[in-house]
Q: What sequence folds into this?
């Protein structure tokens, strides 16, 4: 399912790095925290997923 | 643009005494509480008789079997569509199938994104960025991912179309900027999304200078032909369904086919192509291009054809499955080995039900059927 979602993102021109899957056991708190910090940092670097919506994107000249 | 539907007093009077719609409705057959006539009646009552809050509003397939037979020309699918728009505003939403992923893909396409959706075409044939013919591929790249689990590759439809067009000497425009046509958003009562998608598509196609837009998908074709002019104005290009284009052009295009083994086929009329657009014969003429292919009609065909059981990726139910199984059995009873459709959704829905049956029937699309018979170089 995650691989298919990634393919969807590629079609839609959304950076597939925004989707991240990792299995972490409940006993591995430190690893979870580290993983999350890294992912949040990555998303901050990538910025907003979609460009800010203008009033009428489609009718404006490209 | 706001559309209104006003039924005349005569229409309502006749309607109340009739019921051909309910008698013809494939949903009513499976779900006896569902009645188009009763829904019309409720709409004349105070506060729409609770119609706007009812789940039945989403059960209609908009297959047009009722309006085809209505003696007073009530466009019931349109009646449903307009009520769905209002229902959404009251918080009544449909149950989306496949986790709503296809609705999500459509709504993301209303944004200014840079899609990468033409990858399949690079290995399949020759296409251009500008030109007279625009091939509107529709949702196939998304279906190809979503329905892999059925063992299907809906992009084979697009690959076959591109090969056929190339053989005819046509190098069509295929664009990364194409958006979902908005058919499903429109039929889910989501006019805002529909409008944005329609405007993107108009802009994209205009920029290529195309004079003709060809559709392999009946829904895209019907939506462009019927609804785009109402929402975004007269279109500056011709809108053609691929089966009507091929049935007219292919016999004189110098394309040769090679005979394959004898085959008995039957044909599933997609609602949007048949009842909604009146295109019944062109796909049949294409199948008759092959002397070794024998076409046998199912009992219910053309304007009486049975819908494939679900529409707009919502409300898939036991009712949908019952219709699909019934339709597949009807196809098997003709003695056909192959059921040919002209709609990717019919194919997906029927394949899904076929997986639960122990039957030896092949379900394919008309373009793949043609492409398999193209003479090899």
A:
């Amino acid at each position: 399912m995650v691989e298919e979602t990634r393919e969807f993102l590629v079609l839609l021109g959304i950076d597939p790095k925004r989707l991240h899957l990792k299995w972490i056991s409940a006993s591995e708190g430190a690893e979870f925290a580290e993983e999350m910090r890294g992912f949040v940092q990555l998303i901050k670097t990538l910025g907003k997923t979609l460009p800010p919506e203008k009033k009428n994107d489609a009718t404006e000249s490209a | 643009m706001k559309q209104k539907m006003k039924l005349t007093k005569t229409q309502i009077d006749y309607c109340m005494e009739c019921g051909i719609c309910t008698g013809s409705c494939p949903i009513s057959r499976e779900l006896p509480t569902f009645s188009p006539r009763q829904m019309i009646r409720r709409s004349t009552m105070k506060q729409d008789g609770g119609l706007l809050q009812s789940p039945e509003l989403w059960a209609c397939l908009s297959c047009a079997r009722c309006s085809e037979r209505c003696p007073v020309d009530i466009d019931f699918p349109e009646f449903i569509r307009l009520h769905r728009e209002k229902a959404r505003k009251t918080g009544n939403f449909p149950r989306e199938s496949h986790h709503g992923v296809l609705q999500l893909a459509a709504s993301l396409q209303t944004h200014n994104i840079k899609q990468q959706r033409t990858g399949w075409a690079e290995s399949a044939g020759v296409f251009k960025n500008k030109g007279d013919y625009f091939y509107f591929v529709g949702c196939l790249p998304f279906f190809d991912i979503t329905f892999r689990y059925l063992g299907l590759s809906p992009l084979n439809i697009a690959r076959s179309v591109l090969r056929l067009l190339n053989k005819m000497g046509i190098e069509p425009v295929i664009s990364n900027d194409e958006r979902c046509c908005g058919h499903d958003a429109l039929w889910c009562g989501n006019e805002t999304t529909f409008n944005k998608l329609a405007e993107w598509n108009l802009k994209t196609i205009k920029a290529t200078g195309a004079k003709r837009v060809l559709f392999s998908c009946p829904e895209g074709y019907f939506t462009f032909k019927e609804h785009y002019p109402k929402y975004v104005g007269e279109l500056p290009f011709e809108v053609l369904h691929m089966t009507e284009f091929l049935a007219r052009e292919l016999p004189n295009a110098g394309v040769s086919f090679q005979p394959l083994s004898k085959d008995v086929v039957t044909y599933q009329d997609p609602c949007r192509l048949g009842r909604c657009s009146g295109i019944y014969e062109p796909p049949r003429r294409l199948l008759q291009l092959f002397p070794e292919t024998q076409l046998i009609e199912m009992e219910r065909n053309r304007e009486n054809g049975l819908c494939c059981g679900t529409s707009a990726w919502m409300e898939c139910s036991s009712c949908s499955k019952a219709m699909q199984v019934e339709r597949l059995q009807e196809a098997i009873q003709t003695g056909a080995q192959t059921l040919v459709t002209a709609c990717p959704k019919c194919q997906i829905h029927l394949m899904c039900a076929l997986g639960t049956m122990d039957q030896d029937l092949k379900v394919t699309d008309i373009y793949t059927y043609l492409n398999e018979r193209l003479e090899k170089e």
